[in-house]
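It is worth pausing here to work through a concrete case rather than discussing structure prediction in the abstract. The textbook approach is simple: state the sequence, then state the predicted structure, then interpret. We follow exactly that order.
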Amino acid sequence: MGTDSGCSEYSVGEGGFDALADFLGDGPETVIPVHNLRRRSCKAFAARASGRIEAAIVQTDCAPAEPTAHGADAGAIFEILRGVQGWRCVNASDVVAQALGRLIEKHMGLSVKTLGDVYFTLAGAPADLRRQDVRELVPDDVALLEAAPAELRGCGFGSSLRLLEEGVVACGLVSGRVVATAHTSAISGGYADIGVFTAEGWRGLGYATACTSMVVRRLLGMGLRPVWSAGENNPASIRIAEKVGFERVSRRTYLIAGSGRAGASHGG
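Step two, the predicted structure:
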């Protein structure tokens, strides 16, 4: 999706990744792009005016189809986006989402549907939801994690071993195999984003909540503020966050591109 126009003009080389991370700042909505910029595990694009960054797009290696857009100028973001390859939806601030959606429809001939992306941080002490069949993994458990299905192994650190060495993983274990995980998908200066997955057949049994509670307590001990995000169409994820003690702090919007203009809608 998109064209080749603009790629060379807006692409940020690795030498500019740290400057772009500084532009984004450290917060719940930026922990994932900042993590990937610092680790050089993404593609990055930026528009500048008078030598200063005014808009940017970060396309992580883990989720290249879902880049994040940053900045308050919808037109500048759109000019970057039209040169980004392989995207299916773009995550933008509510300030520019409506205008950016109109530009995508008008100039790319695509329909755009919207989905709210809600961000949570921990309000106080997390709920203590420990259970005997949930434990934190350590680097020596790498073979156990590697034996799990791919969706349970997490993404964002390059390998399972690096995730265990540099991040935090808690898992639910049944008969010696991993059936659920909560893990750090990204870590920035003061924040850590948490990703969760439970294997089919083991959902609704409290594993994800217990794993999340364990990861949260560990992150707080490391001086990091846990972050959770979920689409507004994912009540199960939102329930887990609320059970652990997370509270909503902000919202962004997914702009999901379709094949034609029919059925297009815009959200704020």
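Step three, interpretation. Residues 141 and 197 are 18 Å apart (CA to CA). The longest strand covers residues 246-257.
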